[in-house]
Amino acid sequence: MDEIAERLQRMRQVVNGSESLARRGRHVRATVLIDAGDSQHLLGIHAGRIERLEHGPFVMPTWDFALRAARAEWEAFWQPLPAPGHHDLFAMIRRRALRVEGDLHPFMANLLWFKDVMAAPRGARPASGA
Fold first, then answer.
1. Which domain holds residue 12?
2. Confidence at residue 15, expressed as pLDDT on a 0 to 100 scale
């Protein structure tokens, strides 16, 4: 399992273990593609919990929206204290390092929840890196 997959697994543990995130995301239902260039991952989100995490490669996956950035951008975003421009999803969009594609309604309607979810694995070292 690569580092991105391990970070996403950590994200799933943190999000599903947080009653606060579950309560805030109780209306979120979406399938999200996280694209890190050479690896793709699908998050199945229902009622504020990540119920499904699948690792690609995929052939024509079905998703509501996709977050696409280079592997190096995701790694910089998930640093314990990210550098300016890497600290926020919209900062990455502004630098054109992150693209959001698809149905933006679930993303924008629950923006703060998605920002907190995507930042959840910050500082958590992957198991292989320990």
1. 3-68+100-120
2. 92
